[in-house]
């Protein structure tokens, strides 16, 4: 069944919002003071992001492809796998969805944002940073992480077994994200998605949060550009070897 562009955009909007609710919501649960899950650990965050990708792909994969990531959309368009006419509408829907999802996280954790005095913990619930404050490492981590994500996701979703059983493929994609956060997430978070970092960082800058500190705009280009570069390479590898 072919859905209208409006329906596809709605799927991208709500899918990206769900990603943020599960993903950054899990970070807020771990990092913010006095939550039930305070200091629950990195596996809690990895699980949140894994489910945050898995569920939208299960829900909307058959509708819009469930890109929920501007880097995925651009990479597929560059490789001739997605129409260029839909790129900008998809990205706008993803950005708006990311903003909505992050705002819901802010609303639901509002008392804990007021209780938390550590600006780094607050920032972590919105966007990524490099643990060692090195921009080169930041770029490389986000690039290679997104490369693995896009390459793995395309192999799962577009290989014959994935097309035959898209639900199983969506579950595996969720586990790819879960594994990436546990394995490559130490240096930066990771973001692996320009919308997941840019829009929450913007909300961090404008929302009234005590003790929030700086939004670190000087490095904000990295989790936007690096995932796009990695996604294009990952999509090229899929097309070159397996498409």
Automatic annotation (TrEMBL):
It is found in: Membrane. InterPro entries: Aquaporin-like (IPR023271), MIP (IPR000425), MIP/Aquaporin (IPR050363), MIP_CS (IPR022357). The chain crosses the membrane at residues 9-30, 42-66, 87-109, 143-161, 168-186, 220-242. The keyword Iron-sulfur does not apply. Keywords: Membrane, Transmembrane, Transmembrane helix, Transport. The keyword Ribonucleoprotein does not apply. It is a multi-pass membrane protein. One of its GO terms (cellular component) is plasma membrane. One of its GO terms (molecular function) is glycerol channel activity. Signal peptide: none annotated. It holds the Pfam family MIP. PANTHER family: AQUAPORIN OR AQUAGLYCEROPORIN RELATED, AQUAPORIN-9. Belongs to the MIP/aquaporin (TC 1.A.8) family. This is Glycerol uptake permease. It comes from Bifidobacterium leontopitheci.
